[in-house]
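One thing: could you explain this record?
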Amino acid sequence: MSEPSMSAAQGRYRPLFAGILLALTVATAARFVADHYGAPVMLFALLIGMAFNFLAVDPRFKPGLEFSSKNLLRIGIVLLGARITTSDIASLGLSTFATVVGLIALTIGTGFVCGRIFNKQWRFSLLTGGSVAICGASAALAIASVIPHNEKTERNLLFTVVSVTTLSTIAMILYPILFTVLGLTTSQSGFLVGATIHDVAQVVGAGYSISTDVGDVATIIKLLRVAMLPVVLVIIVLALAGQRRGGTGSVRLPLFVVGFAALTAINSLGLLPAVAAKAAVDLSGWLLVVAISALGVRTNMKDMLQLGWRHVAMVVTETLVLLILAIAAVEIGLAG
């Protein structure tokens, strides 16, 4: 690279450095707490980040924080594709696959019904329903990237991440006890853990707390839900484009959605070495935590405190509906 090109690149990215470094510092602190105390890393990234909200309007930090919460987020979502292969999904069987897809659709639908009941906008309904249905905080971040933004978007996104992470942690403790009391088989317990707990880390924790076999099944079921993320994003993009254009015209998919699908395909074809896949997954985890940290810094606690009980009721209702539907699916023999 020539000197003028290097100088131009430095001039372009130098304003981002302080904000990215702040987000990375918060993410590192959150990782430390999570690793040493078994706490949800996403939750602590948000809470620690919010303590530095006074820096959000500082012109030295603002560009980097915006870059971290948007661009680094999308790169992290792309790299999530390295978690998944089509062979993992195929191993589940058609009935289980259809059941998981049905649960996702019904849970998102429940979000819209709850939105009507609790008088919330469709954006919030889609955000909470999608995050509960698919993969918690990661889904919330991805969905927020493709829906139109308004003045409540960041506040609602932060609330959704906090609530689904908290509920995932509670579920990680309570669901294994519940499924054991119900006298379920290994495959049934694995299906329910993977199909009902929001975040991947808590699915792994809950599944392997029952047994290794349950943990293995739960992880595959959870990865199927993660694999449905780009499908849901494409549907959202198409639906929004259809509304704006009266159902006509071409549609441009976000590049990170295409990237997610492409990386999944590459991994499924065996073209991605195991070492590279693991590195991509690890990097994805870090980037998502950095993005959440930046979002936390950009969020004012006063805005969060303005949220009422209806917000909480929506996410709890969606979570309970998903649990009830999944148990019903197991009881009638559709899965597990």
